[in-house]
Design brief:
Pfam families: TPR_12. This is MalT-like TPR region domain-containing protein. The chain is mainly α.
């Protein structure tokens, strides 16, 4: 039903690159081809090789370079009169904007990309752009608005037999179910995504699916060791492909798993590591989620209650400003959880004194 996964963002002279190519290899090949195209005055080829450069920089967490590269790709595509290439550049820019927490800009760029993709007759960039819009809404916690779009895109991807896009859609829908408490459904979808990704040799998609499975195994089943094993398998792929963002989210999830298991010191170390990684790539969502985990772990390890309360209040403001509704709700739950834990400890202390 599904063929081998491919990377449609690697275009022109770079179509031989695999979806599993190391990002450092993609960056090197893309930069070489981009310079050759620019010297030859081939605007269309410069746009398409520049797209690969932009995506490699983005996934490596090199935000400034990625921003310059997608804009240069768009300018070259416009000079070439290549509407589809313009759409791909806007898709890359919109994806980068979402990664940086600029959700309004992300939606604007991705909507333009979808429109140009349709006008240029490129159904793939149209689908990827609509998927980007769906993911933006999902990350912000607007599940009702984007669930139907996820399902629509999943149906389109299945119909075309496009493994990579099918895996993405399955993982997005699974995450919505996980965040709304439907763990069994989420597990089934992550499992299907992992199976399709493995058969199609989509190592990136497989790594994200394993991370999702680890989360469910931890929160639903309390199976810490299996969850950690799944994350270790995913981490090996992230390191091999130089997937900086995915690796940071893997470390943050490992912190979550250890925290749920009551291993607070180990969780604290993982949250600190993830926080540093997200800060290095200017990814505010990952940074905020890592900070939240770190606050909770430190509180469990005896941090002053007033300091915990103050930082949670600050985090709530940050998430409100970014527009992350689901993460904001997580802060509220953390405030309730940690308040209840400390109140119980105080009552126990009072009983011991008496």
């Amino acid at each position: 039903m599904y063929g081998k996964a491919f990377a449609p963002e690697y275009q022109g002279a770079l179509t031989a690159l695999s979806v599993n190519s190391s990002l450092t290899d993609v960056l090197a090949a893309g930069t070489e081809q981009l310079r050759a195209a620019e010297r030859a005055g081939q605007h269309g080829e410069a746009a398409r090789s520049g797209l690969a450069v932009a995506e490699a920089h983005r996934r490596l967490g090199q935000v400034g370079d990625a921003d310059r590269a997608w804009k240069a790709s768009y300018r070259a595509a416009r000079q070439a009169g290549d509407t589809a290439a313009m759409a791909w550049a806007l898709w890359s820019g919109g994806t980068l904007a979402r990664q940086r927490g600029a959700f309004a800009l992300a939606r604007r760029l991705l909507q333009l990309a979808a429109e140009l993709g349709e006008r240029g007759g490129d159904v793939v960039v149209r689908g990827y752009s609509l998927a980007g819009l769906a993911e933006t809404g999902r990350i912000q916690g607007d599940y009702e608005a984007v669930h139907r779009l996820h399902e629509q895109l999943l149906a389109e991807a299945r119909r075309r037999g496009e493994a990579r896009h099918t895996v993405w859609a399955l993982e997005g829908i699974a995450q919505i179910h996980r965040n709304t408490g439907s763990y069994d459904r989420a597990y089934a979808l992550f499992e299907e995504a992992a199976e399709i990704a493995a058969r199609a040799d989509d190592r990136r998609g497989h790594a994200w699916a394993l991370r999702g499975l680890a989360d469910i195994v931890s929160v639903r089943d309390g199976d810490t060791e299996r969850a950690l094993a799944l994350l270790s398998e995913a981490e090996a792929t992230c390191r091999a492909m130089k997937l900086s963002s995915a690796l940071a989210y893997n470390h943050k999830m490992r912190g979550n798993v250890l925290y749920r298991a009551g291993r607070y010191a180990a969780a604290r170390a993982l949250y600190e590591q993830a926080l540093a990684e997200f800060r290095a790539m200017s990814e505010p969502r990952g940074e905020a989620l890592s900070r939240l985990g770190l606050v909770k772990a430190r509180a469990r390890l005896g941090r002053d209650r007033a300091e915990t309360t103050a930082e949670l209040a600050e985090l709530a403001e940050v998430l409100e400003r970014i527009g992350l509704r689901h993460a904001r709700e997580m802060v509220t739950r953390a405030q309730e959880e940690l308040g209840a834990v400390e109140d119980a400890a105080q009552r126990a202390g009072a009983v011991a004194v008496r």
